[in-house]
Specification:
The protein is mainly alpha-helical. The protein is built from eight helices and two strands; from the N terminus they run αααββααααα. 50% of the residues lie in helices and 5% in strands.
């Protein structure tokens, strides 16, 4: 079934990290919080900047911040910026379309139902905001003594 790429997962982790943070956050800070490859996170954030999801600031206090409020950024925005709309069937794949399409397409019994599933999936992505991701899984600060008690 549909699976997000590592780039999208890294992008979502970085974006969640930016929510409710003041000022610009560096790639280094994000990668210190989450064990992610710096180069990939930097590339992902550049792509998100080009899509208008984040803004960047240069300099010693530079880094990235959200370009819009977390209530205005959807999973659809992130997936579209980093992956495009993934095809669910081979008849929707760019390779098949480039080669003239599918030979079953004129009489295909699954194209319309699969297309509806895809549309509903995209509707879910477009209605799920970055804020709702953060709200459903708030970060809980654990004191060192509490962490040691669980070991």
């Amino acid at each position: 079934m549909l699976q997000l790429t590592k780039r999208t997962e890294y992008g979502l982790l970085a974006l969640v990290h930016l929510v409710d943070r003041e000022g610009a956050i560096s790639v280094r800070e994000i990668c210190e919080r989450y064990p992610l490859p710096r180069r990939t996170v930097a590339e992902v954030l550049k792509d998100l900047q080009h899509a208008g999801v984040v803004e960047s600031q240069r300099g010693s206090a530079g880094g990235y911040s959200l370009a819009r409020s977390p209530e205005q950024i959807t999973l659809g925005d992130v997936v579209a910026a980093l992956e495009g709309a993934p095809p669910l069937t081979t008849c929707e794949s760019p390779i098949v379309l480039k080669n003239g399409g599918c030979e079953v397409q004129p009489m295909c019994p699954i194209k319309s139902p699969i297309h509806r599933v895809r549309e509903r999936l995209w509707q879910m992505l477009e209605h799920t905001t970055l804020r709702s991701l953060v709200a459903s899984h708030p970060l809980v600060a654990v004191s060192p003594t509490a962490a040691q008690a669980h070991e």
